[in-house]
Design goal:
Largest sheet of chain A: none
Structural class of chain B: mainly alpha
Low-confidence stretches of chain A: 1-8
Number of helices of chain B: 11
Number of strands of chain B: 0
Largest interface: A-B, 56 and 52 residues
Mean pLDDT of chain A: 81
Oligomer: heterodimer
Number of helices of chain A: 15
Low-confidence stretches of chain B: none
Structural class of chain A: mainly alpha
Helix content of chain A: over 70%
Distance between the termini of chain B: 25 Å
Radius of gyration of chain A: 24 Å
Mean pLDDT of chain B: 80
Radius of gyration of chain B: 22 Å
Largest sheet of chain B: none
C-alpha cells in the first residue's frame, strides 16, 4: 500500500498485479508453514499409523523409518529441508504409497479438476442466470420458488445426495455408469493433461471420450447443486443492490430497452460481488469433492487427502495442503486481478 | 431483537421454526420417544420398512427409526456447541482485533487469511485425523476452521462503531477502554453475530456429519447420522439404511437455514451484507 502522495511510477495496473502476486507468494509460504505446524504439533503418531504394530515395536525399524523420512531431525530443519526441496519441485515421499508425492498428486489433481471445473462452469451458468431472474421478479412467485430451491440446495448433505444419485441412476435405473473415472473395459487415454476427456479428444478416441463424460456426469451434477444454491442467492442480492442505483434509473428513464439495461448496466455492475462469490464457491466445491469422491471411488485429491490424513502421512497431507492452498491463492489472485480489470477504482486504492 | 417475531411470519421462517423445534423436542425427550433401543440388535437384519420398523432394520438388526431419532441427541447438540464455541472464540478475537487495532489486528486477520486459504473439510480432516477419531475431536477440528468467519464479522462491526460519536463521547467523559467496550460496543455487535450464528447451525451440522461420514467423528455403535449413511454405502441394496438418516440431516439443516434466512431478511441491510460475505464459508 503506497501513500497516495507518492508519485506513481509505471502502469498502475501492472503495479497492482505485481503487488497482488507478491502477496500471493507470501500466502503460499504461509500455507506450507500452517500445514507443517498443524501436522507436527498434533499428538498423532505417524510411525504407529504407517508401520504395522509389530514393526512399530522394534526400535531399530522405527529409527530407520524416522531417519528415512527425516523425522529424527529438529523441526525447523525439517521445515527448511521441505522448503528447499519444494523449490526443486520435490514434495517428498508419501509414507503411505511410498511413491513421490508429486507423482501421486499429478494423477489425483487432474481427476478432481475435471469434476470441479465442470461443476463450477455449470454453477455459474445456472446460478447467475437464476439469481438474475429472482432479482428481476423480486417478490413474485418465481423469486419465492427460487429462494426455496437455493435454500434446499445449500442444505443437502453432499455425501448423501451422491449416494442417493448413485443408487437411483447407476444402480437401479442403470442410466449412469458405475464408479471410477472409466468403465473397467476402457483403458485410459495417453497421458497429456491428465484430464481424461481432453486426452481422449487429443488422441481422437471418441469412445473413451464418451465413457469419461458419462462417468463425470453424476459427480459433477451432485457438486453443482450446492454451488448453484450459493450463487443464486448471492447473484440475487448483488443484482438487487444495483437495481436501486441512480444510474439504472437514469438508463431506464432514457428509454433504453429493459434487456440492455439489465445486461449492460445492471449485470456489469453486479459482476464484482458475483466474482468474489465464484471464487469462494470454487473453494466450497473442493471441500465437497472430498465427500463426493468417496462415494464414486473417484481417485482424486479428496480421496488422496482422506487417505493421507487418516494414515497421518505427513508428506501426503502437506502436498495436498500445498496444492489446495495454491489453487485457492491463484483463484483469489485471478478474482482480484479481474476486479482491477472490471473496476478501475480498485487499481489505485 | 423485537423485530424477530415479524420475520418468523414468512412461510419459510415458520416452517423452519416448527421443524427445528420438532428436532429439538426429539433430542430433549430422547428415550421417551424411541420405540426400541438404538443399540439393540434384536431384529431380523436388513429388512425394509414395515409397520413394526418404519425405517427398516440395519445390517446388525437394529431399528433404523430409533437410531434416526437417537441421532438427534448426537448431532444437534454438538452443532450448537460448535457454533457457540466459534462465536466465543471468533467473537473475542474479532473484538480484540477491531478494538485494539495495530499488531493485534494484523495478527488476528492474517491468521484468518491463512485458515481461510484452505477448504474447510480438508483442514478439518487433517486435524480430526491427527487428534484421533472421536466426536469431541471432530468438534475441535471444526472449531479450527469455523472461528475466522466470526472474527472477521465482529472485527468489521467493531471497526465501524469504534469511531462513532457516541463512543468517542463516552471516552471523553473518562470511561475506561474496557467500560466503553462493554457498554458501547459489545451490545451493538451481539445481534448481528447471533444472526450469523443462527445461519451457521446448518453448516455446522453438515460439517460434523460429513466428518463422521468419513469416519473421523462418531465411532461405530453410536447412532450418528453421518456414520449411518457411511455404513449404508456398504449395504447398497438396503436403501432405507442411508436414505432416512440423510433426510434427518437434510431437514435439520434446512430448518435452521430457513430460520436464519428469515432472520437475516429482517435485519438492517448494511449488516446483512457483512453477514452474507461471511456466510459463504
Amino acid at each position: 500500500m503506497s501513500a497516495p502522495s507518492e508519485p506513481s511510477s509505471g502502469n498502475p495496473l501492472l503495479r497492482y498485479i505485481a503487488r497482488r502476486v507478491g502477496v500471493s507468494v507470501l500466502l503460499v509460504v504461509g500455507v506450507t508453514l500452517v500445514t507443517f505446524v498443524l501436522t507436527n504439533l498434533v499428538p498423532g503418531d505417524t510411525v504407529a499409523a504407517n508401520l504395522g504394530q509389530q514393526a512399530a515395536a522394534d526400535p531399530t525399524i522405527v529409527a530407520a523409518y524416522r531417519s528415512h523420512y527425516g523425522l529424527d531431525r529438529p523441526l525447523p530443519e525439517q521445515y527448511g529441508t521441505y522448503l528447499v526441496n519444494l523449490l526443486h519441485g520435490d514434495l517428498g515421499e508419501s509414507q503411505q504409497t511410498h511413491r513421490s508425492v508429486v507423482a501421486d498428486l499429478s494423477a489425483a489433481v487432474p481427476a478432481t479438476l475435471e469434476i470441479a471445473i465442470g461443476a463450477i462452469v455449470l454453477s455459474i451458468l445456472i446460478g447467475v442466470g437464476l439469481g438474475v431472474v429472482a432479482a428481476v421478479r423480486r417478490g413474485h412467485l418465481a423469486d419465492s420458488a427460487l429462494r426455496l430451491v437455493s435454500l434446499v440446495g445449500i442444505s443437502v448433505p453432499t455425501f448423501w445426495l451422491a449416494m442417493v444419485a448413485f443408487y437411483v441412476f447407476s444402480y437401479k435405473l442403470d442410466v449412469a455408469p458405475g464408479s471410477g473415472r472409466l468403465s473397467p473395459a476402457t483403458t485410459a487415454p495417453p497421458d497429456v493433461t491428465g484430464l481424461y476427456t481432453v486426452d481422449a479428444l487429443l488422441s481422437g478416441q471418441w469412445e473413451t471420450f464418451g465413457d469419461a463424460v458419462a462417468h463425470l456426469m453424476l459427480p459433477t451434477l451432485v457438486l453443482t447443486l450446492y454451488t448453484v444454491g450459493l450463487l443464486t442467492r448471492f447473484t440475487r442480492s448483488a443484482v438487487l443492490e444495483v437495481l436501486d442505483q441512480d444510474f439504472v434509473r437514469s438508463a431506464r428513464a432514457k428509454g433504453l430497452p429493459g434487456r440492455t439495461v439489465l445486461l449492460r448496466y445492471v449485470l456489469r455492475a453486479a459482476l464484482v460481488p458475483i466474482l468474489t462469490v465464484v471464487g469462494l464457491a470454487f473453494g466450497a466445491l473442493l471441500s465437497g469433492t472430498v465427500l463426493v469422491e468417496q462415494i464414486f471411488s473417484w481417485p482424486g485429491m479428496g480421496s488422496y487427502a482422506y487417505q493421507a490424513a487418516s494414515h497421518l502421512d505427513l508428506p501426503g497431507v502437506m502436498g495436498v495442503g500445498l496444492v489446495v492452498g495454491v489453487i485457492y491463492v491463484v483463484i483469489n489472485l485471478v478474482v482480484d486481478l479481474l476486479y482491477g480489470v472490471i473496476d478501475p477504482r480498485v487499481r489505485v486504492s | 431483537m423485537r423485530r424477530i417475531p415479524r420475520a418468523w411470519r414468512t412461510p419459510l421462517g415458520i416452517t423452519g421454526a416448527v421443524v427445528a423445534a420438532l428436532w429439538i423436542v426429539v433430542a430433549v425427550l430422547g428415550p421417551v420417544l424411541w420405540p426400541y433401543g438404538p443399540l439393540a440388535q434384536d431384529f431380523p437384519r436388513l429388512e425394509g420398512p414395515t409397520g413394526a420398523h418404519w425405517f427398516g432394520t440395519d445390517e446388525l438388526g437394529r431399528d433404523v427409526f430409533t437410531r434416526v431419532l437417537a441421532g438427534a441427541q448426537v448431532t444437534v447438540p454438538l452443532a450448537l456447541l460448535l457454533v457457540g464455541l466459534s462465536v466465543v472464540v471468533g467473537g473475542l478475537l474479532g473484538l480484540a482485533a477491531g478494538f485494539f487495532g495495530r499488531w493485534v489486528d494484523e495478527t488476528v486477520m492474517r491468521l484468518t487469511d491463512l485458515v481461510m486459504a484452505f477448504p474447510i473439510v480438508i483442514l478439518a480432516m487433517v486435524v480430526a485425523a491427527a487428534l484421533g477419531a472421536s466426536l469431541v475431536n471432530a468438534v475441535l477440528a471444526a472449531l479450527v476452521v469455523s472461528w475466522p468467519a466470526y472474527a472477521r464479522v465482529t472485527r468489521g462491526l467493531v471497526v465501524g462503531i469504534r469511531t462513532a460519536d457516541y463512543v468517542l463521547a463516552d471516552r471523553l467523559l473518562g470511561f475506561s477502554a474496557f467500560r466503553s467496550l462493554r457498554t458501547d460496543i459489545v451490545p451493538m455487535v451481539v445481534g448481528p453475530v447471533l444472526i450469523l450464528a443462527s445461519l451457521d447451525i446448518g453448516t455446522a451440522t453438515l460439517l460434523l456429519s460429513g466428518l463422521s461420514f468419513l469416519g473421523l467423528g462418531a465411532k461405530p455403535p453410536t447412532a450418528e447420522w453421518g456414520s449411518m449413511v457411511s455404513t449404508a454405502v456398504q449395504n447398497f441394496d438396503s436403501w432405507w439404511m442411508g436414505v432416512f438418516p440423510g433426510l434427518a440431516i437434510l431437514t435439520v439443516v434446512m430448518a435452521f437455514n430457513f430460520l436464519g434466512d428469515a432472520l437475516r431478511d429482517a435485519l438492517d441491510p448494511r449488516t446483512a451484507g457483512v453477514l452474507e460475505k461471511a456466510e459463504t464459508r
